[in-house]
Each structure stands twice: as structure tokens, then as C-alpha cells.
């Protein structure tokens, strides 16, 4: 299709291009090249080589519908073709008709693309009436284009083709000259170095980056039309300072239509650049403008797709994981995938459990070395830093969530690099997505931890409340704390006599009692809890005292009715072993368990009031009945002592009832002193009668105990009194034991002691059953 006022002379154009078929490589012969309308109407054709009749006949019978060829041995290949000529243009197809086995289809297509610039040139020469001899080197350029396309496998990767292109141009210059290719970056307003024949130039690519507006000013100052060269003398020093380090250079802009999409730089440090073949270089550069433009757009779409795919991938991973360490690993992997060769460092505000392979360190905002990281953390803004010493670019990016900033990561590029707005936006979106994922994971972990903490507190409180023995409650609480905090030691200290443990009157309880008994340093911690009502939380105790037994300490006072009744100490040998969350959990656990602990003590006190005689503090007879019954079920033998204060009525008559009560109390204290409190049971039997039950004790040993009691009572009571004792015993081997028989036997022995003079100990004998009680 032709638009405009004038027509194109297709025959002249084809004659110019194919004037000497010897320039066509033999591998493409025989063939018929042609220009045709999009509907299949052939405008002009040219036979190359010895074309057989069957080819000519087949070509003449081509179907307009997509050029379907009836003969199976032949094939036709076409490429789109547009020819401009001032105010008119033609759009159609440029193609070749050839044997099917003549050549690989890809090579033929590449060759057609290589011939397209020749058609453009022929059309231009036709317009300006330029002699055809000017196209003398045309096919050298076309072969070069076809060779590059084949060498790069017709790739859409800009960096691959550009590198090949730069080295192909190297053939046109001297070996001392270097070639560099700068192309428009699709994501910024810069031309960036894409390829070079000099590795040093590539390593210093940021120095050869130029703003598009800056170069536009240089191009506007030139009144040249079509491809041209910009010499060194025409380039201002401020535009390309790095170039002026070279002895000579020149620049060839790359145009696509009227848009400058890049440039070729030829540089040398020795003498002057070789300009012998600059014409061929200009033509090659000009003819590839459309191809470069295609590759630039392909790069843009590829990079955008990679980033979108990468963001989609990491987003799926982020929101499918509740593990902060796994999320941080994905962030590092994504950055390394997007920017191969970059070094990533994570600086975090929290001590998360992450893999040792991750480059993680704690963020110290007061450290001057980490000033940039601290600034990014505080402001929440991305910071780009170019280091003049190492010549590297460092990005410091905050990991932001909706509720705060959780750290920063540093991207250290191997060389100085200019990041485009699109790149910075991509990195920030990745960081923000990661920050939100970290926040979600942290909130999830915190909620789970809170649930576990509440379960621990409720479970411990419930167990203490249900197990109302104080010693067992303390052991339970201590074991729970050691288990929950993986502590090396834990201790309970009681400050009020009312709340002391009943086992030996101890006021503290530890797994390793010897370690704490005379430790002055721990005593200081105890006084802090007792006098200051303050919690203790030490990450490294050695900073406060010299050679402490432990490094990490948690101390929580036990407060009841606004009074400190005791405290809990938790220890670990390693420094900073307890987190602040651990401290808060211990605080809550102790506060909740203090009430349960006090309830347990009050319950024991209430129980003791019920089973204890008010006057003597000995157990009641009902309680002893329970104990003896239980002993007869579980123990193999036992003994019982029944005591009666001699002439007690005369004490009351002579000294009064208060004196009588005092005597009973004195005798009770003797019984408590000479019996084993954790096993033997002292009892107020009734009136002036007292009793002792000794489980797993035979009659002889019980008699010794009774004798000691009798002697001490006689020696230490005031007013002085004596006691008479009756001893009985039971043994499972003698038959089914009886509670009533045990008590009756002791009563009969006591009766005999009274009858035979008092102030003595008598044992039950079977003959006592024949004695009639008076």
C-alpha cells in the first residue's frame, strides 16, 4: 500500500539491490526475491541463480492467501517491509521463494532482515538520483547483520546482542581502540553502558552514564541529518568528563525514527581513533536502530515480568509462612536473584531465631558506624549512598510494617551504580511486603506465645490450687519455672515466719541448697526483693558484681496484701539468656501463683485448726483415728502410748485450773520434742490424758520413747508432776489389726501402771485381759 503523492519505482530499487547476483551467497541460490502487497500482489521480483522452470511456474501460481505454495518441495518466507520516501511510504512484504532444503529457515529470515536496510538505501538513492555504485559495500554490512543475528540465536536479550555488536564493531577500528555501546534505559531518564570491548569500562559503567536531556542538547546543536559522527572537539567537558581521560574519541548516535535511543563510543588512549571504516559503522548502526529499539522494549517487558513474577513469588511465600527467619531468607534470596552479585546484610531490631547462614546482625542505632542504617530505621526512608573510597553503591532500605519498622537491609553493589526510580520503587515494595510479612508472622508468634503463657499460668495456678499442700505447691511451681525458662537454678525465699515452710522451719527452698546457703551476692538480691519491692532483671550480673555464680537473673517479689511475703529468683549461667518477654511471663506467673500459694498455706492453717487441739497444739483424737487407720492399711506394724498426768485433780484443786492447763501444755511440748514430727502423731486424748502413735515402731522402741517422756516430764514441769504410760502395739503378722483393740490394750497397760504406783511405763500383756478394770 502506498500513501502520499508520488510512487516508488520498485524495479529500480530491486535492480539497485540485486544488480550483481554474485554478491548473493551461493547457499541462498536458486531463489526468487520479491516485494508484494499484503494481499499477495507481487510488485517486483528478481530471480537469483539458475532458477528451474518448476520454481518459476510455482511462483506464478502462488495463492494470495498467505502465499501458500502448491509444490511441497518449495517454501516461501516473508518479513514486513516499510519504505519511506519523503511524504509518502509503502507498506508490504519482502520475501524469498526457495528450495525447502536449501537452508535453515532461521538463517534465511535473518538474511532477509539483513537485506532490508539495502532496500531502504536503494530507495533513498533512487529519490536523490545517487549512482548505484555507491552501494558497493552494501552486502558486507548485510552479511554482518545476518551473522550477528545468527551468532546471538536471534535473541531478545539486549545485553547478549549488544555485547556481540560491540565486538563486531571492533573489526572496523584498530586494536588499540575500544568500543562502548550506551543505550536508553527504559526505566529511567539515562543512557547507560550496556557493553564494551574493555572490561575496565564495564566495571566503571556508572561513570559513563548520561542523562537523556543532556545528550539531547548536544544533538540539537548539530544541524546534520541522518547518521553522523560527533567528534571529541564538539563534546563539552562537563558532558562526559570520563571520556576526556582518553587521547581521542568520537560518538555515533543510534536513532530509531527521530528518537536517539543510544550511542556508539570509540575511544583510544594511544594517538587518534581509526576512522577508516566509520562509514560502514554508521550504516550498520543506522540499519540496526529498529532492532535495538525492539530489544530495549523487550528488556523493559522482561525486567517488568521478572519483577512482577518475583514479587508474586515472594508475596505468596511471605503470606504462607509464619516464620520470621524463613521470610528474611526469602528477602535475601529475592534481592540476590534480582541483582546478582550484590551483597545483602540484614540489621534487625529484634532477636529472631534465624538460620546461621543468613547475614544477620543486631541494629544498634547508637553506633556511629551504623549511622546510615539508624537513619533509615528511624525515618523509614530508603537511602542511597555512593562510597568514594571503595567506589561502590549501597542501598539502605527499611523493613516497614503497618505498626513499625523491624530493621533494615543493606544492598552493597560490586561497583558504583545508578538506581532508576523504577528499581528503587521495586526494592521498596519488596521491602515493605517483607516488613508486613514479618509483622504478621511476629503478631502470629506473639499471639501463640501469649496463649501458651496464659495456658502455663492457668495450668500452674490450677495445679497449685488443687494440690493444697504447701511443700508440693512450691515444688510444682519451681519445676514449672525451671521448665518454662530453661533455668539452671530457681529459688523461693519467704520473709515472714507465718509463711515459712513447715519442713524444719526453712525460709527458702532451692534445688541446690548448698550453693545458696551462704552466698552473699544472692543475699543482696534477696534484700532487694524484700526491702525495695522491686523486680530484678539482669542480663549480665558480672557487670554489677565480680564473679557472680550466674550471669542472667530474674527476681520477682511475692506480694500479698501490699506486703512482700517472699520472692522468686531464676538464674541462668549464660549472659542475656532471658528475654524481656520471659521476664514479663515470670512476673505474671509469680503474681498469679502467689495468691494460689497463700491459699495453700491458709488452707493448711485451717486444716491444722480443725485437727489440732486449741490448748496443747497436739492433734485431735479424730485426726489420730484417721492416721492410725491409714497406717494399719499400709504399714506392717506400729505402737501406741497412752499417758495420764498423775494426781492431776490435786493440781487443779491446789493451784487452780489455769495451772492445770499450763501443766498439760508443758507435757504436750515434751511429747512434741521427743517424737518425730514428720512421722509420729501427738494427740490430746481427753482431759489430762495424752497419747502418741508411732507408725512402723515396735513395742520396745515405743517403751523407750515413753520412758524418755516420763523422765523429762518429772524433771522439767512446774509445778512438778509425773505421768504414767501404757504401751500397746500391733503387727499385721499377728492377724487383722484393730483400732479399738490397740487403744484398749494401751488403756489396760496404763491402768496397771496407775495401780502399781504411778510414774512408770507399763506394756500390755495378754494377762491384762483377765484383770477387771476398777
- CA-based gyration radius: 52 Å
Share of residues in helices: 40-55%
Count of alpha/pi helices: 21
* Amino- and carboxy-terminal Cα gap: 148 Å
According to DSSP, the number of beta strands is 26
SS content category: alpha+beta
Average residue-wise pLDDT: 79
Q: In which order are the strands of the major sheet placed?
A: 8-7-6-11-10-9
Principal-axis shape: rod-shaped
- Largest sheet composition: 6 strands, antiparallel
Percentage of β-strand residues:
15-25%
Low-confidence stretches: 129-139, 499-511
Topology summary:
Layout: E1 2-3, H1 10-17, E2 31-36, E3 42-48, H2 53-60, E4 74-85, E5 88-99, H3 105-128, H4 138-151, H5 158-169, E6 178-184, E7 190-196, H6 199-203, E8 210-211, H7 212-220, E9 230-231, E10 248-256, E11 259-268, H8 278-287, H9 289-320, H10 324-338, E12 343-348, E13 360-362, H11 371-379, E14 383-387, E15 392-400, E16 405-412, H12 421-466, H13 470-485, E17 489-494, E18 508-509, H14 513-517, H15 520-532, E19 536-538, E20 552-560, E21 563-572, H16 580-611, H17 621-634, E22 637-645, H18 648-655, H19 657-673, E23 681-686, E24 689-695, H20 699-716, E25 723-731, H21 739-755, E26 761-763
Helix pairs in contact: 1-3, 3-4, 4-5, 9-10, 9-12, 10-12, 12-13, 12-16, 13-16, 18-19, 19-20
